[in-house]
Every structure is written in structure tokens, then in C-alpha cells.
Amino acid sequence: MPPLAALSGELSRDVSGADAKTRAAVERIVNAVRKDGDKALVRFQKSFDKSTLKPAQWEVPHSVWEHALKRVPKAVHVALDGASARIRDFAEKQVAQGFEHVALDGSRLAQRVIPLERVGVYVPGGRAVYPSTVLMTVIPAKVAGAKEVIVVTPPSGASDVVLAACTYAKADRLFLVGGAHSIAALAYGTKTIPRVDKIVGPGNKWVAEAKRVVAGTVGIDMIAGPTEVLVIADDSADPRHVAADLIAQAEHDEDASAWLVTTHARLIDAVDVELERQLKTAPRAAIARASLEKNGIAVLVPDVKTAIEVANLRAPEHLQLLVREAGSWVEQVRHAGAVFVGPLTPEPVGDYIAGPSHVLPTGGTARFASPLGVYDFVKRMSVIEYTRERLELDAKDIIALAEAEGLPGHAEAVKVRF
Question: What does the alpha-carbon distance between residue 381 and residue 240 come to, in Å, rounded to a whole number?
Fold first, then answer.
């Protein structure tokens, strides 16, 4: 394998902390909401979202959702219906059951799987609207059995299609509050917005930093950085497909990352030509071009095996395999949020309709983190029930360990029962 030291500075993008200025600003926002509740939210809504909505106007009633449904084109209805069905079907396969073991002496060990009571979902709204995020976050939570799922989104994010998605996903409530201040509101609760047990969903660096600040007070899914794709391609790959796949990710925002790792130098040149051709007519060309110029990288490797190793080192959010017999390489992939196999599986199928959630680990965190799923909306509880026979059998060991740790009270709690 050739040396990959040249890539060491690019292999992961640190999502462990925002810049100092953003961090300080977010901490002020969170502390203000924690202290002043709705009053602080009103100030931040006006400052950041140019919104003059009053607290009583933040929640969007279900009657408005229903009117939005009527305005959504039929084709979008069909797409939302199909996507929600597939996401729900995939989520139902993730449902975990607890277990129980009863020993011959009658002692019992068990693990209960318990749904979270209340979940908060952040849905971005700015340069684009994200009904897909509603489906990909709310549906797994509902399948898990969460009693209440609350969606928050900036006023600009509550388009008809987002409201329609809330209906298809069976969300419970929706508030027109976004940004770091909405994360603080969900974490601590205000007079208008209830406190939740866990906050999930993607967002910009302000939202990500706010989730970091409140983590521990409330559960979070992950600290998400800018979106990313790594495309592995050999000489069988169509340059048009590769270029389109890179642009599809780069158009999200200027900080998005799109990599090409290939075994053929000619493909790099062909993809460069295709990128220029496709960007000429791309509606979000300025954003995509800036992203590609800032974060786009082409890596030339001797074989697909080495390309897979680059991917494992990079641990990308999205990994596309545009190589011969692509399916045979999947088992070699150890670190990726999601793998898209073959030329007929472009990354947008995962964004919208395939079934697995598109909320994925970024910035190299796929080394240890997983896609959002039903398991993120439950907690596990241990149950231990001893009989006298079992306690008699284990007492000597318990007492020995307790005394070895210098905790005689622990030992006495067992001794006193005999």
C-alpha cells in the first residue's frame, strides 16, 4: 500500500468543537434561554430569523398541517407516502426486545427496553427545506414508541411540504422556532415549548454547538459537521455519474466535502471536464463550486483495495462504490455512515426513500458512531432479583470485593442479611 501520509490532514474533519467565537455566542444564547425562557426566544427570533411571531403563534396547529396537505402536489404526496412506508418498514426491523434469564435457583436477570417519553426533532430551514429530515427522524422515534415527538424548525422552514411530512411521519407538535435558541428551549423547557428527553436532527454549526452545550442535560444523537461523500471509482465508472454524485453533495453548502478516490488518472481528468459542464447549468452551482474548490479532493490509488483503505481512514458520512462487482467490496468497509453500492445506487436514494435514516455520523465519527435509528429513541434498564440461595452462593465473593475496594458498608449490606 502506498504511503497515505499526504492525506493525514484531510482524513477527518474535527467536529469536536466550534470556533471560539461561535462557542461563546452559543453559550450566551443557551444561558439566556435557560434563564429567561420565552422572553429570550422572542429576542433571538427577532434577531436571527427576523420573526415577530409571539409565543402563542409559535405552535402550528394540526388544522394548518391539514390545509398544507391539500396544497401539496399529487406527485409529492405519492413520494411522501412511499418514503414514509419504506422508512417505517426499515425502522420496524430495528426494534429490539428485552430479555430475561431465570436461573435454576429462581434468581432473575433481565433487561427492559423502554421508549423515551418525549423527543425533540430539529428540522433545518434556510437555503432549503427538508421534509425528508422530518420523515427520517420522526418515524424511527414513533416506531420506537416515543410518547411525544416535537418538531422545531425556523419560520422559513415550515413550507407546505414540511407540514405535510409532519403529518405523514405522525409528529405530535410543531413549533416555528429554530437555531441554537430552539435547542436550548427543548433542553430546558419554556412556558411555551416543553422540555424533551433527547434532541435529534441535523443543523448548522450553531445548532451543532448548542447540542454540545446542552448534552448531559438532555440526550443528543450526535454532533454533526458538514455533509460529506467519498466516491470510489475504477475505470468502469461513468464520469457523468461521478461528477453528478460529487455535485449532489457539494450543493448542500460551501463547507460540504466531496472526495473522489480512483484507480485511474484518466477518470480524474474526465470528471473534471464533467464537473465544469454540469456546473454550467446547476441551479446551486455557486455553492457547489465553492465546496468543491475548498474541500474537494481527488486521490489516485493503485487498486480498489487501497481505495477502500482510504475510505476506512476517512470514515465518510456517505461512501459510494462505483467499481466492478461493487457488492463484493462491502465487507471490506469498516467505517462509513452509509454505503451506496453500484452505479444504480446514487446517494440521493438514501437521502429520500430507501429506508435507512439519512442522519449519519460525519467528520470521521463513523469510526465509532452509527446512523440514527430506533435504538436512539429507547433506553435499557437492568433488572436484578436474587433469591436467598443465590445470595448465599455469591455473598463471599461480594464481601471480598467490597472489602478489597475499601467499602465496608457494601460488605455489611450483605452480611446483615445472614
Answer: 51
The per-residue pLDDT for 232 is 98
CA 31 to chain centre: 25
φ, ψ for residue 237 (rounded to 5)? Answer: -75, 140
Q: What does the mean pLDDT of the chain come to?
A: 94
CA dihedral 317, 318, 323, 329 (to 10 degrees): 50
Report all structural domains of the chain as residue ranges with CATH numbers, in order of start: 20-220 (3.40.50.1980), 226-358 (3.40.50.1980)
Angle of CA points 47, 24, 202, to nearest 5°: 70
pLDDT at 253 over 90: no
Q: How far apart are CA 183 and CA 208, in angstroms?
A: 9
Would you say 51 and 155 are in contact if contact means Cβ atoms under 8 Å apart? yes
Q: Which residues are catalytic?
A: 317-318
**Residue type for position 378:** V
- pLDDT over 50 (residue 214): yes
pLDDT at 353: 94
Per-residue pLDDT at 17: 58
